[in-house]
Please model this.
Amino acid sequence: MNCPRLKDWLDERYDLKGITTLAKSKLVPAHRYDLWYYTGGITLFLFIIQFATGMLMALYYVPHVDFAHKSIIEIVTKLNMGWFFRSLHHWGAQLCIAFLFIHLFGTLLLKSYRKPREMVWVTGFVLLGLSVFFGLSGYLLLWDERAFAATRVATGGAGAFPFIGWFIKAFLRGGMDVTGDTLLRFYAFHVAILPIITLGLAGLHILLVQYHGMSVPLSVDREKVREIPFFPNVLFKDLSVWLVVLGVLVTLAVLLPPEIAPKADPLAPPPENIKPEWYFLFLLQTLKLFPGDILGLNGETIAILLVTGAILFFFLIPFFDRKSSRGEKSPLFTWIAVVYLLYFATMTVVGFLS
Amino acid sequence: MRRIGIVKCWLNSRFFPLCRWLPVLLLLAGTATGWAAEKVQKVDVFPPTPYDGFIIYESLTLFWILIIGLIVVIRMKLREIERIQELGVEAEDPDAPVLR
Model:
């Protein structure tokens, strides 16, 4: 496509050549671990799909306790391709969080968080937390009996947090129990508050990655690393990977559309074998490990405190790992990362099978 | 007392067969309504007609063919770019005449 008049028009107003030169001057290291670089791009791509499909469904969804479930059924059964976009949104969320975890553990194992990229880690970690909250808030919007029971359990678990638990629980629920107020609150979080914060943070995260450049693992000799231009080499590879991810996403959406359970009834007992989304399973299994009472203290509160401590330590790893920030190998933190990964994977599988 | 006995006898003769079949009727009615309720609750999350299903699976196959084709084109283009980069002739000549 060659449009000289348009090119001239833009060139007179914006420094297009400068932008092109900047894009071409960006170099990406090529080494045996460079596959991990693509996980961040995949997550971004999935975020974009989530925004697009979410906006489409927001055109028809009614965030009211009496109509929410009905509106979802109408989206799925009456709208042209509605079932497909809902399924895409569902599977996009699952894949997005899965790739966020892969990206997180890849960053952790390759020590890409080390100085001077601590803030890249911090923004990425907060983005993961936001995405999990995206999942929790989006799950309730279905307003079916499973979503209702799962939200009750999740917000109730937050209530076990000492001192401020009651406030978190009341803030999330918008009252004492999960009601229409909770639905409206979660809708506001899901479609307005979280997207704005996510957009800002994702922008900052990408900006910081561009500012610092791609990290090279400690085990790779920096001097011997070949560098390839981001544009067009890496971008073309990114596009290929995104196409494959899109194919997998569409296939999952077509072959395994998510079911819709009966409408939530606050007075009915919760359905049997209720399970939260897969990324909460490790938390649920951890809570199950603890007895109800430990030395006169509430077992759930102790479990929540321990989990919070473990997550906080995980979040602060870049600031604890002094060796890798000096450019030295730190096997202790590699083992810590492996333990975290194994615990998360094992507990998720156990939670899924039980 | 006799009157009551007559009424009781009358009721027995009229309604006893019905009482005997009542549990069976209730069971059948319950099963039927339960089945109907289950039918109502089950939401079709995928177009139910075989024709729609066929079109969707066919489109999915075409979609994958398109994806593979695009990946092949991108890969070919990338190899060409890498070949030119290896030759070291990719730098644009700023004084080159432009055809308009």
Notes: DSSP finds two helices and no strands in chain B. Residues 2-41 of chain B form the longest helix (40 residues). Chain B touches chain A at residues 41, 43-47, 56-57, 60, 63-64, 67, 70-71, 74-75, 77-78, 81-82, 85, 98, 100 (CB under 8 Å). The helical segments of chain B are 2-41, 50-87.
